[in-house]
Amino acid sequence: MSSLALSLAVRDSSTMLRRNLLHVRRYPSLTLNLLLTPVMLLLLFVYIFGDVMSAGIGGGGGPDRSAYIAYLVPGLLLMTIGGTTIGTAVSVSMDMNEGIIARFRTMAIHRPSVLIGHVVGSVLQCVMSVVLVGTVAVAIGFRSTDATVLEWLAAFGLLVLFAVALTWIAVGMGLISPNPEAASNNAIPLIFLPFISSAFVPVDSMPGWFQPIAEYQPFTPAIETLRGLLLGTEIGHNGCLAIVWSLALTVLGYFWSKASFNRDPK
Questions:
Q1: Which of 156, 15, 165 is nearest to 88 (CA)?
Q2: Cα dihedral sign, 23-24-30-34
Q3: Which long-range contacts (CB under 8 A, 24 or more apart) does 104-111 make?
Q4: How many CB atoms sit inside 10 A of residue 127's CB?
Q5: CA 85 to chain CA mean position, Å
Q6: Against a cut of 0.90, is the pTM above it?
Q7: 200-215: average pLDDT
Q8: If DSSP states are collapsed to H, E and C, what string results for the chain?
Q9: Average pLDDT of 205-230?
């Protein structure tokens, strides 16, 4: 790609990014609903189930709500990313159904910029959502355990990488959905999978036949890696699994989205 072509691609992608951010500002209800879900779950599990859950995780000892907050927050942060990307699937589906994509196809613009604008906008929303949920978590008692600056940077990098991966999958879901309601339903696994991961309870407390499913699905390695970086717990093979899952989902989502976007409309 020549320098002129690259400059035009960056310009068009920036324009599409501004367009998507304006949509977020004009239609805040969807983003607000997706943000409230992890915040409400955080408050629910801490203040309603916290004593019972912390006693169980502590091996039958006395309840320690602060310990359960520390255990819970990494999973909620990744769940926040999954929930935020549902809005991306809905937004992409709306574009496809309202005819604006067909209009873009006839214009002299860098075609991938349409998808890039959605992806970058979604990742920025994910980062802001994670900051909000993290702020609430700190306000109710979450504290990191001796994490270094390098570990904080690694944790942030993992969150961004996971957000990119799930966003590309959400874009693909939005492109193949016949309407925004279907897009929202198709993207439900992105917020459901954390419930069958180690986000709320340890994997070894689950039934033996189910443990491999929970342990090797995309969210559990990322959650355990984030816990290790922020809380000093054992990371083991989870770091490699988290990176592999993130890269694999990014590549899969990118080529799936590209093929769906370039497909001639029926």
A1: 165
A2: positive
A3: 109/12, 110/8, 110/9, 110/12, 110/13, 111/261, 111/262
A4: 16
A5: 6
A6: no
A7: 88
A8: CCHHHHHHHHHHHHHHHHHHHHHHHHCHHHHHHHHHHHHHHHHHHHHCCHHHHHHHHCCCCCCCHHHHHHHHHHHHHHHHHHHHHHHHHHHHHHHHHHCHHHHHHCCCCCCHHHHHHHHHHHHHHHHHHHHHHHHHHHHCCCCCCCCCHHHHHHHHHHHHHHHHHHHHHHHHHHHHCCCHHHHHHHCCHHHHHHHHCCCCCCHHHCCCCCHHHHHHCCHHHHHHHHHHHHHCCCCCCHHHHHHHHHHHHHHHHHHHHHHHHHCCCC
A9: 92
Q: Give the number of C-alpha atoms closer than 13 A to the C-alpha of residue 209, restricted to the C-beta side.
A: 0
Cβ contact 80:129 at 8 Å: yes
Q: Please, which contacts does 101-105 make with residues 24 or more away whose CB atoms are closer than 8 Å? A: 101/261, 102/265
**Cβ-based neighbour number of residue 204 at 10 Å:** 10
Decide: 149 and 51 in contact? Cβ < 8 Å. Answer: no
Q: What is the pLDDT of residues 143-164, one digit of tens each?
A: 887 889 999 999 999 999 999 9
Residue 23, C-beta contacts closer than 8 angstroms, at least 6 positions apart? 91
Looking at every residue in the chain, the average pLDDT score rounds to: 83
78 has pLDDT over 80: yes
